[in-house]
Amino acid sequence: MSKNSTLHVVFGSGPLGLSVVDELLQQGAEVRVVNRSGKAEVPDQVEVVQADIYDRAQAIRACNAAGYVYQCAQPPYHQWVEKFPSLQQNILEGSAAAGARLIIGENLYMYGEVDGPIHENLPYAATTRKGQLRARMAQAALDAHQKGILPVVIGRASDFFGPRVLASTLGERVFVPALRGKTTSFVGNLDLPHSYTYIKDFGKALVRLAQEDRAYGQAWHVPTAPAVTQRELGEMIFEILGQPPNISGMGRFMMAIGGLLIPEARESVEMMYEFEKPFVVDCSKYTNAFGQTATPLQEALTATIDWYRQHVLQ
């Protein structure tokens, strides 16, 4: 494959993968989406390829002719520890075999509990299973870059929200009840600052990182709006809806009770520290380098509410 290939291959057709696709199509790029079903809600000009990414050979075939590969796929949340390493390693090897650049979307789990703003120079100090896993995978990818195996760049976001985002702490448990005039359900302490990343900003940032030679070999915190408390966020949502706020918070104990029946809730308990102390993201490195800033919260929340009205409540 020519290293000058302009084909962009996106692994995963969830909210992040499709936000990357949206941005690429706006730029007139040639796009291939890879997922397990071979189906995705994308325009006709987007090629959709079915592949079992846990199979190395299939992952390599899916990367054929790629110039850029975006790693936006993940296993079910309760299967991260068992399945994530092989999934990401297969994508890395497929990208290398194609001579492509690899752009990885990550969260912030690898840092662990942090006092003060969360920035890229912090050590990987996670003590949770999923945090340590994120740290190992991130380090393996950056090591591959340093060894000259392939160019790698990482974009990291906080808990995200926006169109297509359902399974998030700022997802359907918040927006659907609010739209129905019922009580919304946030996680943890409602009165501590918490950073949330708008999914469209995340997708746009990954595409920008892909195009910037100076970005490679590093991790970047993508543009994220200034932190507000979850109570303030809930009040903003209800203000947009023209309703009085009706907000609740689910603590660690109730999350653990839910985990007795719901595997995803059980896996969320170890990450509750994010909602029991301030969780504030510093994205100034990215903004200073590339100029992109986060969509204002009011605008992002309004677009999210509009999407839920059209796609979830119909």
List the helices and strands and how they pair.
Elements: E1 7-11, H1 15-26, E2 30-35, E3 47-50, H2 56-62, E4 68-71, H3 80-98, E5 101-106, H4 129-146, E6 152-156, E7 159-161, H5 172-179, E8 184-187, E9 193-194, E10 196-198, H6 199-211, E11 219-221, E12 228-229, H7 230-241, E13 247-250, H8 252-259, H9 263-268, H10 284-290, H11 297-311
Parallel strand pairs: 1-2, 1-4, 2-3, 4-5, 5-6, 6-11, 7-10, 8-13
Antiparallel strand pairs: 9-12
Helix pairs in contact: 1-6, 2-3, 3-4, 5-7, 5-11
Key traits:
314 residues, alpha/beta, 7-stranded parallel beta sheet, two-stranded parallel ribbon, 13 strands
What value does the Rg take, in angstroms?
A: 19 Å
Individual helix count: 11
Estimated share of beta-strand residues: 15-25%
Outline type:
globular
Low-confidence stretches: none
Helix proportion range: 25-40%
Span of the ends, CA to CA: 45 Å
Strand arrangement in the largest pleated sheet? 3-2-1-4-5-6-11
Find the structural class using helix and strand composition.
alpha/beta
**How many distinct beta strands?**
13
Largest sheet: 7 strands, parallel
Order of helices and strands: EHEEHEHEHEEHEEEHEEHEHHHH
Give the rounded overall mean pLDDT. 94
Description:
The protein has eleven helices and 13 strands. The protein has about 325 residues and is of the alpha/beta class. Strands 3-2-1-4-5-6-11 form a seven-stranded parallel sheet, sandwiched between helices. A two-stranded parallel ribbon has the order 7-10. β5, α4 and β6 form a beta-alpha-beta unit. α1 crosses α6, α3 runs parallel beside α4 and α5 runs parallel beside α7. The protein is globular. The mean pLDDT is about 95.
